[in-house]
Write a structure and sequence with these properties.
This protein is of the alpha/beta class. The chain has 15 helices and 13 strands. The chain starts with a helix and ends with a helix.
């Protein structure tokens, strides 16, 4: 049964995803290697602790860390990582969470790097404490903020690109000098591969990646780092609950198929021909760019260099809103409301399209719809 058939059977309208790895659209399309691995894992049951033991070694070997764990999403990795820092392997404390009375419970975060997902550390009972000013953070400010209730420091890895903030290495040095562990959200910091490995082997105690960015499921993540912290995170997960810890992580259950699939996705990502992958994206952008070239007031730009040469390429489409009488947001809404429905993003300086999430033939469909909207 094709994807259109299964959706039609259930009364669901398929969407062309030019917005990227959007959780609300299902996050990712599984690679062939991941699908095959999941199908193979589906053929037999296995003790989940045996699965996690094997995957722990595999992830550690691939990323150069002491341990690794597949979780039900990067957010879950952050929750279980924070729980590991708060409660360690103490069964009484694991059961007590999210009540953190009698425990250190503060997680420091640089104020300019606050972001939507930092609330993950509050799920197991952590309390976020901002460090620095709205537009800058100094090393001394971080040192001074570490106190008797500091349990750990949360670092948003992508926040390193924000000016006047502390780099990951600086944070780790200050934290470890004070005996404080570091938890890193590196969800999409997966390319260049040197960047991914550098974050994983930075010396941070726990590092989290999003599985959907690697070609695994929307509902998968990777937690890696120091062996004792990864082991403690497992105790605060669903297998810990099943073996008597009564942990808060019971709700973060994940299938054996997803665990195996995510491990294969990581291996495939590390071994992939990324030049070929990016070349395909560049060709898709060129097709749209060439097709819009004759429309007055419309300009296009491949944003890969401006985005820092990251994992994916975006196309920026800009036009004179006053001359065309169409705002960026209006065209985004028109594309979304059309047939087929095309999801993209509008920002103050244009309409942005991700091309890495497109399927065969969808680039041509997008071009036709853009010509209709912008050329009318």
């Amino acid at each position: 049964m094709s994807n259109s058939d299964i959706y039609e059977t259930l009364g669901i309208t398929p969407i062309i995803n030019a917005g990227g790895h959007m959780t609300i659209l299902g996050g990712s399309v599984l690679s062939r290697e991941v699908r095959e691995a999941m199908e193979a894992a589906n053929e037999a049951y296995a003790l989940m602790d045996d699965v996690f033991d094997a995957v722990d070694k595999a992830i550690a070997s691939m990323l150069g860390t002491q341990g690794g764990l597949v979780t039900s999403g990067c957010y879950a990795a952050l929750v279980q990582g924070a729980a590991a820092i708060l409660a360690g392997n103490d069964p009484d404390r694991i059961q007590q969470l999210p009540d953190t009375r009698g425990m250190k419970n503060e997680f420091l975060i640089q104020k300019p790097t606050r972001y939507r997902y930092d609330r993950s550390v509050s799920t197991p009972g952590g309390k976020l404490v901002e460090v620095g000013d709205a537009d800058s953070v100094s090393a001394q400010q971080l040192r001074d903020a570490i106190g008797a209730q500091t349990a750990g420091i949360l670092v948003f890895a992508a926040g390193e690109r924000i000016p006047n903030t502390l780099k990951l290495g600086e944070v780790i040095e200050i934290a470890h000098a004070a005996g404080v562990p570091v938890l890193v959200d590196a969800a999409a910091e997966i390319y260049p591969l040197e960047r991914m490995r550098a974050v994983a082997t930075s010396g941070a105690d726990l590092i989290c990646f999003g599985g959907k960015y690697l070609g695994s499921g929307n509902s998968t993540g990777i937690l890696c780092g120091r062996a004792e912290f990864v082991a403690a995170a497992r105790l605060s997960g669903f297998t810990g609950f099943e073996t008597g810890n009564n942990s808060i992580g019971r709700g973060y259950k994940i299938d054996r198929q997803e665990v195996i699939g995510t491990t294969v996705a990581l291996r495939h990502w590390l071994d992939a021909d990324h030049e070929q992958r990016l070349q395909l994206q560049a060709e898709r952008i060129s097709l749209i760019t060439d097709g819009l070239a004759t429309i007055p007031h419309v300009e296009t730009q491949n944003m890969w260099q401006e985005d820092g040469g990251g994992p994916w390429m975006r196309l920026r489409i800009h036009w004179d809103e006053q001359a065309t009488g169409r705002s960026f947001a209006e065209v985004v809404d028109a594309l979304k409301g059309g047939s087929p429905s095309i999801w993209s993003r509008s920002e103050p300086d244009g309409l942005f399209m991700a091309v890495h999430t497109l399927r065969e033939g969808e680039t041509e469909t997008i071009l036709r719809r853009l010509q209709e909207e912008l050329g009318s």
